[in-house]
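Chapter review: from sequence to fold.
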Amino acid sequence: MLKKTYFKSLLLLIISGIFSSAFAQKTLDEIVALHLTAMGGKEKLSKLKSVKITAEMEVMKMQIPVTTTIVQDRGFRSETVVQGSTITQVIDNDKGWSINPMAGQTKATPLPDEVVKSLSAETDLTGLYNYKEKGQTLTLDGEDDLGGAKVYKVTQNLKNGSKRTNYISQDTYYILKVVASVTVQGQQIESKNTQSDFRRVDGITYPFTSEVETSAMPGASMAMKIKTLEVNPKIDEAIFVMPKE
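The token string follows.
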């Protein structure tokens, strides 16, 4: 009789554990909501209109200064100084241009439409916030282990056709890694961005350290460390307009 009672109690405990585990599983909406809160909250993100970042990128033991200026849904401009030459790349709404003296390109040259399309998401500062309104879709693709950290895998299908898999920490709800896939000139390029050293600036959380690997540069990696980050600085949007010859 005692054995039967023990067996029933054990069975109930197992069943209870199964149901508790099932009910404990978070939905996609809950995960996104917790992530947005961790990033500063919907109200803060809704007021994010621009950023200016100065950083240092390490590539093949070279320290390369990078300045990035972004205006939400308007423009993206990066200036990278390599061996005294400044490489400029700009997205201006649905157009883009670049200057690359190291490739003999000393005047502003329009970017191909396909490259502009692949970079168009760079003008979005708010990530998963209002993703439906942005024409994006999300799927929850299970859980994973990322260097000992338990994460949710949330795949983001962007309006420009590219795809990102976001590895969201089950502890902090920060995005610890992003694997992005985009097709350029018929070739699929995959990049992996591992993020750390999260800090709050004016109430919004940013990763101050990133390590990037890309299939476009097999075997190489780039480490990026942010030096300064300004939230909602006043930007003269003329910097996005392609200079006339």
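Two observations follow directly from the output. The helical segments are 2-24, 28-38, 42-46, 113-119. The first helix runs from residue 2 to 24.
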